[in-house]
Design goal:
The complex is a heterodimer of chains A (about 240) and B (about 400). Chain A is of the alpha/beta class. Chain A is built from seven helices and eleven strands. Chain B is elongated and about 100 Å long. The two termini of chain B are about 30 Å apart. The chains are: A alpha/beta (about 240), B alpha+beta (about 400).
Chain lengths: ~240, ~400
């Protein structure tokens, strides 16, 4: 069912020019993200995992092939149009948190809404609501450097939710956190998924992927090596046929 | 847009000292420009005011030494009382006065000074007084029939021009002749006038042995008459009697209008020169802003990446940086205006209290203040344009990975 796919990468290649040589970071990759799924994109560093994330998250254009975000081919959009669409449909959570340090927690959460021209009352209301959901109702006006790593990542989750996106893309969200804090973050993501939001987790950690995801794309050498689907308590591995 | 201002202010605060240092260049140059323009406006206003008291019914005739040249310094060419006689008979002339100046050795109470002495015909004191807006503060004015008497500028009494205060009734010695001080004039505000020594023309000619030379003629026209027409008639008549043509005319006529104009021209030259200097410092300030903004774009590469990832269009990013650099310019200009106002007021104070002149005062019309502030914002925004464009073109993927 085409309509069930929120993001589709079809025969996507991404090449980078490095001096005289062309590096093929991705080659002939197909990725389908179904609505409501919890997908992990997994692979060691240098596998093309980051590039897949950038393309899946509409952060970058492909060299070849089409990328469809909610049915719209992002290759046809200009950079600024893409930013607008991305801001509305995808929320990002990064390993480095990537919050703006001279803004408060609340202001950080309000930022994506500013770019969607949401009015100030709505922005404040929504930001407060989201920060309460991630248990930071008492720290809304704290500056980022006054918050712990786990708290910062929760602010990032709240920010990712600001524009009510259908998809949340989390790039190694637990990478800079201790296990306990990391688990708490993952639990928040799971809760969001339970409420119907599509989650894409980018990780190098197979255990983390298997613990939370229902679909796993394993990337290696610029290709999708295999896809695993959770069926009941077991996993079914589908190899990529060329 | 409002939130972009808030973001920009936060960013500027974050950089604290660097923001202030960047603004230094702007506020020094804006202060200079503001001070220059407000002083020159004030000066213009003061001069116009003086011309108003002088009246619009008078014009002046002088040998062709050029305006502002020292009286009587021209080689050979002089005006004489004969010329005055000719002028007095021109149709439309109501009254006139004239003076001749000479350098004298003035002694009083054992002290000797070298000062300029002016000879004026006592029967024509009215026009003379009107032109200089002189009034007697103490004693009496010059009168026909009272020879060897002088009236003095106010500083002779209050400013120790002759070593100690002189009062009406004192005797002073000029070129070894005794003169009685008949009167002291009110303070004018112009140091030259306030140091004046004025005597009747007859005594002046005997004392300095200048039989007929006239340095400056003041002509008053009939009420309701056209001053320019009368001035033209005087010019033609004098050409005829002095045997000169328009080309080799050896005297000049100045109407208040022309005087004001030539004064304005001089002022404009000075102002534009100084404004040029200020403009250079403004350019340096602008480069400072551009430099700071470039640094800031680099430092915040990751932040730019984040903003773009969460939906900022290129124009959003550009606006944030543009407003930030504009604010640098605006705040710099605000401080500059305050600083310029302060310095201008200080100069005004010194001029009044130390130099005894009311010519140096500042004028601060609203357009000047608004203009300086708007200009500052503009300079900031323009300097920030290229850095802002660079910021807006930052690649999201690269920026997010930027360390």
């Amino acid at each position: 069912m085409e309509n069930d796919k929120i993001i589709r990468l079809r025969q996507v290649a991404k090449h980078y020019e490095m001096g005289d040589t062309v590096v093929k970071a991705l080659d002939c990759v197909d990725i389908d993200i179904e609505k409501g799924d919890f997908v992990a994109i997994m692979g060691p560093s240098g596998s093309g995992k980051s590039t897949s994330m950038n393309l899946t998250g509409s952060l970058d254009y492909s060299t070849e092939g089409d990328i469809l975000l909610d049915g719209e081919n992002i290759q046809d959009l200009e950079e600024s149009e893409l930013a607008q669409v991305r801001g509305k449909k995808i929320g990002f959570i990064f390993q480095q948190f990537n919050l703006i340090s001279n803004l408060t927690a609340k202001e950080n959460v309000m930022l994506p809404m500013i770019f969607q021209k949401t009015n100030i009352e709505e922005r404040e209301e929504k930001a407060e609501e989201l920060l309460k959901i991630v248990d930071l109702g008492d720290r809304m006006n704290f500056y980022i450097n006054q918050l712990s790593g786990g708290q910062q990542q929760r602010v990032a989750i709240a920010r990712a939710m600001a524009n009510d996106p259908q998809v949340i893309l989390a790039d190694e969200p637990t990478g800079n956190l201790d296990t306990k804090t990391g688990n708490k973050i993952m639990d928040f993501l799971k809760k969001l998924n339970d409420k119907g939001r599509t989650i894409i987790l980018v990780t190098h950690d197979p255990d983390l992927a298997r613990q939370y995801a229902r679909t796993i794309y394993s990337v290696r050498d610029g290709k999708v090596e295999y896809i695993e689907k959770k069926i009941g308590d077991g996993w079914k591995r589908i190899f990529n046929e060329e | 847009m409002q939130e972009y201002f808030q973001l920009a202010i936060k960013n500027l605060r974050e950089r604290g000292l660097r923001s202030w240092l960047t603004m230094l260049g702007i506020f020094i140059s804006v202060a200079t420009i503001f001070m220059l323009i407000s002083l020159s406006l004030g000066l213009q206003g003061a001069v116009e005011e003086q011309f108003e008291t002088l009246g619009t019914d008078k014009f002046f005739v002088q040998a062709a030494t050029g305006f502002l040249g020292p009286p009587g310094s021209v080689g050979g060419v002089i005006l004489t009382e004969e010329d005055v006689e000719v002028i007095s008979k021109v149709h439309g002339v109501k009254d006139y006065s004239f003076f001749t100046a000479g350098n004298a050795r003035v002694e009083f109470g054992g002290d000797t000074r070298h000062l300029i002495v002016w000879g004026v015909p006592p029967e024509h004191m009215d026009v003379y007084n009107e032109v200089g807006s002189f009034e007697i503060a103490e004693g009496r004015n010059l009168e026909k029939g009272y020879k060897n008497s002088v009236i003095l500028g106010n500083l002779h009494k209050t400013g120790n021009v002759l070593g100690k205060p002189v009062s009406a009734g004192n005797k002073i010695t000029i070129n070894s002749e005794d003169f009685k001080v008949r009167g002291i004039m009110e303070l004018i505000g112009n140091p030259d006038d306030d140091r004046a020594i004025i005597m009747d023309m007859e005594s002046f000619r005997e004392l300095f042995e200048i039989p007929e030379r006239v340095d400056f003629i003041m002509v008053q026209t009939n009420e309701g008459g056209d001053i320019n027409e009368v001035a033209e008639r005087v010019e033609k008549k004098l050409r005829k009697t002095r045997g000169v043509t328009e080309k080799n005319q050896d005297f000049g006529i100045l109407t208040p209008e022309e005087l004001l104009e030539s004064f304005g021209n001089i002022l404009n030259i000075i102002t534009s020169f100084l404004a040029g200097v200020a403009a250079i410092s403004l350019l340096v300030g602008a480069i400072g802003i551009a430099n700071t903004m470039y640094t800031s774009v680099l430092e915040r590469t990751r932040e730019i990446g984040v903003m773009k990832a969460v939906g900022a269009r290129n124009s959003d990013v550009a606006w944030i940086f543009l407003i930030e650099s504009g604010l640098l310019g605006l705040v710099g200009a605000t401080i500059g205006v305050l600083l310029g106002y302060g310095i201008g007021k200080t100069i005004e104070y010194i001029a009044i209290h130390q130099l005894n002149t009311t010519l140096l005062q500042i004028a601060t019309p609203v357009w000047l203040i608004a203009g300086c502030l708007g200009f500052g914002f503009l300079i900031g925004a323009v300097s920030g344009t290229l850095p802002a464009i660079q910021a807006s073109k930052t690649n999201v993927v690269d920026a997010l990975r930027y360390e």
